[in-house]
Design goal:
- This protein is an alpha+beta fold and 99 residues long.
- It has a domain at 19-25 and 42-99.
- The protein has 2 helices and 4 strands.
- The protein has helices at 2-16, 56-68, and strands at residues 21-23, 44-49, 72-81, 90-98.
- The protein is globular.
Length: 99
């Protein structure tokens, strides 16, 4: 019984601490030609998040911040499930468009 309680508490803590973040598929793939290099442009940004802790305003603010690094503005495209790690299973896709 204590093991279940500890496991449940750890899972709750893990889920509660999840903040939305910019997701890069294959970010750590050393075979990528751009591995370890700074981006020079961005056409789209994916944000992984957990519904209970994230508002649409949080998602837009993070997308705007990321697109602004390239002099662009974010436009919401769609959301889907299971494209991100299991702790933050939801993904919001924004395109970065010229201002």
């Amino acid at each position: 019984m204590p093991t279940r309680l500890v496991s449940a508490a750890l899972l709750a803590l893990l889920v509660a601490s999840c903040q939305p973040y910019v997701y890069e598929r294959d970010e750590f793939n050393r075979e990528r030609t751009d591995f370890g290099r700074d981006r020079t442009d961005r056409a789209a940004v994916d944000i992984c998040y957990f519904t209970k802790k994230t508002t649409p305003q949080d998602l837009l603010a993070l997308a705007e911040s990321e697109c602004a690094k390239f002099g662009k503005t974010a436009r919401y495209q769609y959301s889907d499930v299971l494209e991100c790690p299991v702790v933050t299973p939801l993904r919001a896709r924004f395109t970065c468009e010229a201002r």
